[in-house]
Design goal:
mainly beta, Jelly Rolls, 2 domains, 7-stranded mixed beta sheet, 6-stranded antiparallel beta sheet
């Protein structure tokens, strides 16, 4: 029986596709072979054109309905795309809230060893005119909560970061600011619980949030992100450009997306496709008969920057 091994790898990840006769089997080489690291940075900008392997996908869940509106908005708060959030419709303290669960991503070994892995997003606090004819900013019961899950652990009951409006008499004292119109505090750590209370207007609010994530210097690290937005008193909270970034530009993967093998006389034709990636190492194909492995008979260098998936064919 002819056995054909087709493998691909990056600097810290290695997998193989094995053909036994005409049956293809994807199997692992090494304990971490079933882990697929993400293309860094992974970004969600809430635009319909935001497609491909570099997108940080998410699932929204309304957790407090009220009379408000949740979902996609433009960056100025109108209906459309470009941001995501919640707009409260009542001049009271009954919150409208939504939960965004971003799909887990895996950081490769070496990521974060010299510069940190990070979560980053932009924040805006817009306003309607409330029932008193005043404009309401980031109200005292409005909130942004960020939860981090590491290696599949359940989300904690206490967020790693909580931002609330100023706790002063009256509920229309909070800051009002567009994207980029507030401050960027020093990065917060995922390992602590940070509770931030904004100062009353006209003090600026926080428009860029950065959270330092765990390092995966010696092992793969899986990270999940949950963000909850809640607004009251006709406040509108929006987020944009939610980004997971791998520290110190660690190697990115080559991902096998398709593998086909066809027996033809004394030969086997292979056709495979691979996804987007950087710093790719070569694809190699090796044949084996009766457990005797032959030298590599096909070698395909991976370019430093692969923009499109490729279809490759080999005949032995």
């Amino acid at each position: 029986m002819l056995q054909v091994f087709t493998s691909f790898s990056n600097k810290r990840n290695h997998r193989a596709a094995i053909l036994l006769g005409t049956f293809a089997l994807l199997s692992s080489v090494g304990a971490q072979a079933q882990t697929t690291t993400f293309v860094s940075p992974n970004i969600q900008n809430f635009s319909p054109s935001n497609l491909g392997s570099s997108v940080l996908t998410f699932t929204p869940t309304v957790i407090a309905g009220g009379t408000g509106t949740t979902g996609y908005f433009t960056e100025t708060g109108a209906a459309g795309f470009g941001a995501f959030g919640v707009a409260d419709g009542n001049n009271n303290q009954v919150a409208t809230a939504i939960q965004l669960d971003f799909d887990e991503r895996t950081f490769a070994p070496g990521s974060g060893s010299s510069s940190p892995n990070t979560l980053r997003f932009d924040l805006a606090s817009l306003s309607y005119t409330n029932g008193n004819g005043k404009t309401s900013g980031f109200a005292d019961l409005s909130k942004v909560e960020v939860y981090i899950s590491v290696n599949g652990a359940a989300y904690s009951a206490t967020p790693q970061l909580k931002i609330t409006g100023p706790q002063v008499s009256g509920n229309d004292q909070g800051p009002i600011y567009n994207f980029g119109g507030g401050t960027t505090p020093p990065p917060y750590s995922y390992a602590t619980n940070n509770n931030i209370v904004l100062s009353p207007a006209p003090s600026p609010g926080i428009s860029t949030v950065v959270i330092i994530l765990p390092s995966s210097a010696t092992a793969y690290t899986r990270v999940g992100v949950r963000i909850i937005l809640g607004s009251t008193n006709k406040n509108q909270l929006l987020i944009d450009n939610v980004t997971l970034r791998s520290g110190n530009a660690s190697p990115l993967p080559v991902e096998l997306t398709r593998f086909n093998a066809t027996s033809q006389a004394q030969a086997v034709n292979l056709s495979l496709g691979y996804g987007l990636g950087k710093e790719q190492r070569p694809f190699r194909s090796t044949a084996q008969r009766h457990r005797r492995r032959f030298p590599d008979h096909w070698h395909r260098e991976g370019p430093g920057q692969q923009q499109q998936p490729a279809r490759l064919h080999v005949r032995r």
